[in-house]
Design brief:
Elements: E1 5-12, E2 18-28, E3 35-45, E4 56-61, E5 71-78
């Protein structure tokens, strides 16, 4: 079985070696035929604390790392333009 990969925006980086990523997806409602937008948060493992709020990253499903972390960061798709010091 292949591993799930998702792309989203980093919205939290305060914890050590962990980032919070929000993934947005659109789908058509089966009854109303209207496009619905949903968001879901994932906690991802960031070994070297490289990623900051605003970065667009790709995360991949992995073995459970902690109680909430089931994903790890694969790569950064786009760095946030204005880095915070």
């Amino acid at each position: 079985m292949s591993k799930k990969t998702l792309t989203g925006k980093v919205i939290g980086d305060k914890r050590d070696k962990t980032i919070t990523v929000i993934v947005e997806r659109k789908y058509q409602h089966p009854v109303f035929k209207k496009v619905v937008k949903t968001k879901k948060k994932y906690h991802a493992h960031d070994e070297k604390n490289n990623f900051k709020i605003g970065d667009i990253v790709t995360i991949e499903e992995t073995r459970p790392i902690s109680k909430q972390k089931r994903f790890k960061v694969l790569e950064v798709d786009k760095w946030y333009k204005y880095k915070q010091s």
